[in-house]
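Supplementary Note 3. Input sequence used for the single-chain structure prediction.
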Amino acid sequence: MMKSAVLIGLLLAQLAAAQVPPTATKTFTPNVVTIGGTTTLTLTLTNPNPATTLTNLSISDTLPLATFQFVGFAGQTCNVGSYNPASGLFTVNQASLAPGASCNLSITIRALIGGTILNTTSAITTGQEGLTGNAVSATLTVGTNATFDSPFQVSYAANTTAGESFINITNDGANGAPLLGPGFGGAVGNICVNVYAFSPDEQLISCCSCLVTPNGLVNLGVNRDLTAKTLTGVIPTSVVVKALATLAGANGSGTSCTNSAATATMTAAVPGMLAWQTTNHNGGAALPAFRVTETALRPATLSAGELASITGRCASILGNGSGFGICQSCRAGALGANAF
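The predicted structure, written as discrete structure tokens, is reproduced below.
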């Protein structure tokens, strides 16, 4: 009997010794926003043990009050999550986690300052097992409203019957550049500029995508390309233009942007797009025949709801097969920069 008790004790000790700490992961979705934009911070806790349930798991993350503003909880499978508005302390607790199981908790936060922000949690711990696991970090890139290469930018063109407007786009190489130039090795940092044109009553009248290489220059004409074959069949005299930059391929080495306007995601959004609108105005008898204005597109915050709306509507345009509502792809060069 005593030998059995000793053996059982040894076995329990061996099982305890074999226990490994829980692990944690952390993500920002999206991981690129503008100042004032929101992102979802998710902490995931995992029990890697194949046969041992872990208890009283805990991890915390201090969100600097000058950097982040707490908006609200966004979903959870872990038991308890709390946020202290006075200190910015975000805590996740799980009473127990079965072998091989995971749980997560997400919050929505708003970025208050620009820059590349590295945020790190505490180590993850357990209760009676006395195990300590890893701390985990994630990086959020926050562009300011004055950063002209923000991933999402907006403009409008009015009185298009009086003159053409052009959307001129380049890629500043924020995500890499050709090592030796075109034709000398693989390029990285290509972006897809996904363009969405709206009529004043909020109808999406056309969408398309343009491949822009680092330091390349392309253009779209509002009359020539964006409204030539509108989905509604009506050609408006003013349009709202929205542009969203995403990587072309996994690391920007892709060479096609076909249909990417319908499949763009928040996590794929990247800086690097420089876009401006050039408009040729008919000045009438009192002014020269044409005069030209140029205005940079305005960086803006893209909400998850708006992204779902524009990509969903673009997918419907591409899927109907009529060819209407699909604007022409970008053409090389810039147009409209000089008066005629």
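The chain has a mean pLDDT of 84. Helices lie at 2-18, 222-226, 260-263, 304-319.
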